[in-house]
Amino acid sequence: MNTLKLKEWLKLYFIMGSNNCTKNPAYILTEAIKGGITLFQFREKGDHCLLGEHKYALARELQSICREYKIPFIVNDDIDLALAIQADGVHIGQDDEDIQKVRNRIGNMLLGVSVHSYAEALSAMDAGADYFGLGPIFPTNTKKDAKPVQGLSFIQELRRKRIHIPIVGIGGINPQNAHLVMDAGADGVSVITAISKADSPYQAAAELKLRTNLDYQ
Ligand code: TZP
Ligand code: MG
C-alpha cells in the first residue's frame, strides 16, 4: 500500500480490548476517534477477555464505529476473525502464525508485525510486513508477557541500519513522552491505557495528537 498514507494512519494508533476499559468500549473508541486517533486495533486478549460470539460481536460493533468515521480497523492475532469481518488489517507477534503464511492468507490487507531485533525485522520484511511495532519502549503493566524494555534505542538502531519500513513504538507511551518516540525515528505511537483508562479518552487522544504532530510542522 501507499507508504505515505500508511504513515498517516500510523501516527496515533489506538489499541483496545474490553479488558483495557473501565468505561464502555464503544464510548471510549468514539471519543478517541473524535480526539484524533488515526487507526484502531482490536486486541481482545488476556485476563477476562471475551471469547467466541461475544468477541465477534464486540469486534463488529467497534468495526462499525471505525467505518462510520473512516478509521482503519485492525485485528490483533486472530486472522480468522479479521477475514470473517473483512477487517482492514491484522497485527501479529513473533509467537503467532508464521508471517509468510499470514501474508498469503490475508492478501492485500495491512500486515503489522511486532519485532524485537534487527534479525526479526529483516525476516518480517522479507515475509511481507507493512509496518513494525517496536516495544515495549517504556515500562508498561498492560502486557503481562512483554519483553524487556527496549527504550528508544531499537528504533534508532533500525533507522541507522537504513530500515525505512514504517514503525510505531508501543509500551508506556503517554502525552508526556510521545515526542521522544517520534524524535527517535518512529512514524507513530501506539497506546492502550493512555487513552482507554483516561478520565477523558477524547482529551487524552487530542493531547497525544498534538504531541505526535509536532515534528511534522
Ligand atoms: N506490546 C508491547 S507493550 C504493549 C503491547 C501490546 C502494551 C502497551 O500498553 P500501554 O498501556 O500503552 O503501555
Ligand atoms: Mg500476538
Automatic annotation (TrEMBL):
Its cofactor is Mg(2+). Its EC number is 2.5.1.3. Residues 12-195 form the Thiamine phosphate synthase/TenI domain. It is an enzyme of class 2 (transferase). Pathway: Cofactor biosynthesis; thiamine diphosphate biosynthesis; thiamine phosphate from 4-amino-2-methyl-5-diphosphomethylpyrimidine and 4-methyl-5-(2-phosphoethyl)-thiazole: step 1/1. GO terms for molecular function: thiamine-phosphate diphosphorylase activity. The keyword Metal-binding applies. It catalyses: 2-[(2R,5Z)-2-carboxy-4-methylthiazol-5(2H)-ylidene]ethyl phosphate + 4-amino-2-methyl-5-(diphosphooxymethyl)pyrimidine + 2 H(+) = thiamine phosphate + CO2 + diphosphate; 4-methyl-5-(2-phosphooxyethyl)-thiazole + 4-amino-2-methyl-5-(diphosphooxymethyl)pyrimidine + H(+) = thiamine phosphate + diphosphate; 2-(2-carboxy-4-methylthiazol-5-yl)ethyl phosphate + 4-amino-2-methyl-5-(diphosphooxymethyl)pyrimidine + 2 H(+) = thiamine phosphate + CO2 + diphosphate. InterPro entries: Aldolase_TIM, ThiamineP_synth_sf, ThiamineP_synth_TenI, TMP_synthase. SUPFAM superfamilies: Thiamin phosphate synthase. Keywords: Magnesium, Metal-binding, Thiamine biosynthesis, Transferase. Pfam families: TMP-TENI (PF02581). Binds 1 Mg(2+) ion per subunit. Belongs to the thiamine-phosphate synthase family. Condenses 4-methyl-5-(beta-hydroxyethyl)thiazole monophosphate (THZ-P) and 2-methyl-4-amino-5-hydroxymethyl pyrimidine pyrophosphate (HMP-PP) to form thiamine monophosphate (TMP). This is Thiamine-phosphate synthase. It comes from Peribacillus deserti.
